[in-house]
Specification:
The complex is a heterodimer. By secondary structure, chain A is mainly alpha-helical. Chain A is built from 15 helices and two strands. In chain A, α2 packs across α3 and α11 crosses α12. Chain A starts with a helix and ends in a 5-residue tail after the last strand. Chain B is an all-alpha fold. Classes of the chains: A mainly alpha, B mainly alpha.
């Protein structure tokens, strides 16, 4: 009998040890999952770097690169200093009261997101915390993405420090407020209006796109972009292949971006023990993303090819395809995602032309691709996804997705981007920190700002031609 | 469009996409396929017309 009891005790000990191993394995999996999203998202920035430099003329190519690199670099520490705190502090709005899920409010943010005092244990190496650093890393990359979106629109005439200030306001504050409100289980847009934006079409892309619009209004067009009669010219970048490859790299990085929007199962902070979820606690699978992202990329490219035949717009169409479906990548049927993305690819160039004909010089179409299409995606989900529960919980107790809710969300995301972009750029303009002097712009930003040459043995820029020759 | 009677994720244990259990997936698949074919037809026509301008 005693022998049997001893054998039983040994088996229990083995089982307990195996169970502990499984817990450790799951924790390591969760940590590795988010860790890997970080280099994948850095590929987005490799893409933005190539795309922006390719879209610049020879005389500006390196300064565009410098600006892009600095935006990325400043985003990390500023998001560490206060952006992460804003995200956790204000999901319920001002003054930062705690929400029903218990993971929000100023008091909560003070306890986990400051780099000093007791809170600092979650903001640095900690053997008992394998989550905070990788979550922070993924969110810091989202922040850097917003800055890069704005960066392309303003190339070839903005001052470096003025741009960095704008990038910090956008990346470590404006989009973070939108994320707290619409991308958090306690966010008031979610709990009160059922806003659903799984892949951040509105709260990252639209916020960044319309922030850029606010800046562009104050910044003004590049010299030579518009003729005295108001017609626009096409100012070609120096390297279209580099731009197109850059756009493809952004697409690669998107897989990491959207992967980072998934909450893995089995951890103390997970929504489920056995299945992954969205940031709202609603179920999702990586298979859903694979189906829908691929179909969206294809739809966007095909839609853009139909009327433009231009590889720049085709790859922008790929981006537009993903962005137009991003809000509902968790619940769209793949063929429906394809159709929505196709429509986004079709409307992309006309929307960009509309903006250009109103005197806005968006050098890479960022306002349209990210702003307009981002809002289009948020509203599309309201049309197709009405009735879906927006949060985890019992029927009748949680809000559902609705067209009105998504429109309200789209409006809030627009304002979160446009208002700070316009106001801060206006202040910078008044202070003389927004635009380089005319002589410097004509000479080229590289000769003014960068002690190096991109292509020292090459000739001049391609000729400037009418943007819409048929008109 | 939620494919279950009760608006709660707790009742979902399988397909959760829009239109599951209805004809929507089939209809959208057909539309997507038609789009692909139509785009190729339009593309071929316009490209051939442009290429004719360079015929020697």
């Amino acid at each position: 009998m005693e022998e049997q009891l001893a054998e039983l005790a040994a088996k229990i000990a083995d089982l307990e040890a195996a169970g502990g191993g499984a817990v450790v394995t799951n924790t390591m999996f969760a940590e590795t999952f988010y860790y890997l999203t970080i280099p994948l998202m850095i590929i987005i920035h490799a893409g933005f770097l190539a795309y922006e430099m390719g879209a610049s003329r020879l005389k500006n190519v390196l300064s565009s690169g410098v600006k892009n690199l600095l935006a990325f670099a400043f985003m990390i520490p500023t998001f560490y200093f206060f952006g992460w705190w804003v995200y956790w502090g204000f999901p319920t709005g001002l003054p930062g009261a705690p929400g029903p899920a218990g993971i929000s409010g100023v008091e909560y943010a003070n306890s986990i997101a400051w780099g000093w005092g007791e809170s600092a244990q979650y903001m640095g190496p900690n053997i008992a915390d394998q989550a905070s650093g990788v979550f922070f890393g993924a969110f810091a990359m989202f922040a850097a993405t917003t800055a890069s979106i704005m960066s392309g629109a303003v190339i070839e005439r903005i001052q470096t420090v003025g741009f960095i200030i704008l990038a910090v306001v956008l990346g470590s504050f404006a989009w973070v407020v939108a994320a707290a409100w619409g991308w958090h289980a306690d966010g008031w847009l979610v709990t009160q209006f059922g806003v659903h934006d799984f892949g951040a079409a509105g709260l990252v892309h639209a916020v960044a796109g319309f922030f850029a619009l606010g800046v562009l209004i104050n910044l003004g067009p590049r010299i030579g972009k518009f003729n005295p009669d108001g017609t626009a010219n096409h100012i070609p970048g120096h390297n279209m292949p580099l731009t197109v490859v850059g756009l493809m790299l952004i697409i690669v990085g998107f897989w990491g971006f959207l992967m980072a929007c998934v909450i893995v199962p089995g951890e103390a902070w997970s929504w489920f023990g056995d299945k992954p979820s969205t940031i709202y606690g609603t179920p999702i699978t990586l298979s859903a993303l694979s189906f829908n992202i691929l179909m969206a990329i294809a739809g966007g490219i095909i839609g853009a090819w139909l009327f433009t035949r231009d590889p720049f717009w085709m790859m922008s169409g790929a981006l537009a395809g993903i962005i137009s479906t991003a809000s509902g990548l968790d619940i769209y049927f793949p063929a429906l995602a394809f159709i929505i993305a196709f429509s986004a690819g079709v409307i992309l160039k006309p929307c960009a032309d509309w903006l250009e004909n109103r005197g806005i010089d968006d050098a890479v179409g960022a306002v349209t691709v990210h702003g307009t299409i981002g809002l289009y995606g948020v509203v599309m989900l309201g049309i197709w996804g009405s009735g879906y529960p927006a949060l985890q919980g019992a029927a009748g107790e949680v809000p559902t997705i609705s067209l009105m809710g998504q429109i309200i969300g789209a409006l809030v995301f627009f304002l979160c981007g446009f208002v700070p972009g316009y106001i801060v750029s206006l202040i910078l303009k008044v202070l003389g920190m927004l635009r380089v002097p005319e002589g410097a712009e004509l000479a080229g930003m590289d000769i003014v700002k960068v002690p190096a040459s991109g292509y020292p043995e090459w000739g001049g820029d391609a000729p400037v031609t009418p943007a819409h020759p048929a008109e | 469009m939620f494919p279950y009677e009760e608006a709660s994720w707790s009742v979902v244990d399988g397909a959760m996409f829009m239109g599951w259990g209805s004809s929507l997936p089939g209809i959208t698949t057909l539309i997507a396929a038609i789009i692909c074919v139509l785009v190729l037809v339009i593309g071929q026509k316009s490209e051939a017309a442009k290429a004719r301008a360079f015929k020697k």
